[in-house]
Protein: tRNA threonylcarbamoyladenosine biosynthesis protein TsaB
Amino acid sequence: MSAKILALDTATENCSVALLVDEKVYVRSEVAPRDHTKKILPMVDEVLKEAGLALTDLDALAFGRGPGSFTGVRIGIGIAQGLAFGADLPMIGVSTLEAMAQGCFRLNKAEHVACAIDARMSEVYWGRFVRQQDGTWLQFDEEQVVRPALLAENSQTDEHVWATAGTGWDAYSEELSGLKFKRESSDVLFPDAEDIVHIAKFELEKGNTVDVEDASPTYLRDTVAWKKLPGRE
Structure:
């Protein structure tokens, strides 16, 4: 299936944009934890210009739905909604944890990935993923926010070696050292729109899109209020 999908993500310190046009991907990515609002739209303009396309030429707009920084997730989904609303595009939310798993496969061919993002407050955003033969990812552990020591205490051994991705591994290395399954480190610290757009292509093929007003974040912590577009609560 040919597709034209724009993806963006600001859920962590990394700010990234990717444009998929059939099999070609145009990317921009920069670790800029305090400059997402300044950098994301120029990145969008750059990839569209490079591909010679306008927003209205696209089939869908994908975004990193979280988990991640509350502010970063809000920035990303708000900008994505604004772009999609103006161009009348369906939206696709992609887990930032799953995107890191795809990043591990893209860079290291890892097919079993354990993702941990530093969630502050002595917790991590956690999820494990297994790559399927068709290129999609199966969620092995439910995505959750959890204390690393509790995660280690409740872990079990298995026959796989899990590639580790995310900032949580360095932030809580002592606590996570108690995990009972085998691990190998990777260079993937953050989700990237290049991987989000890859996952979004599968979701578009399945028809898994939402209207702009129904696009929502995944915080995992349930104490954060979210407001959709003005007038669309």
Notes: The CA atoms of residues 32 and 38 lie 10 Å apart. The beta strands are 4-9, 14-21, 24-31, 60-66, 91-95, 112-118, 124-131, 137-146, 161-165, 182-185. Residues 70-87 form the longest helix (18 residues).
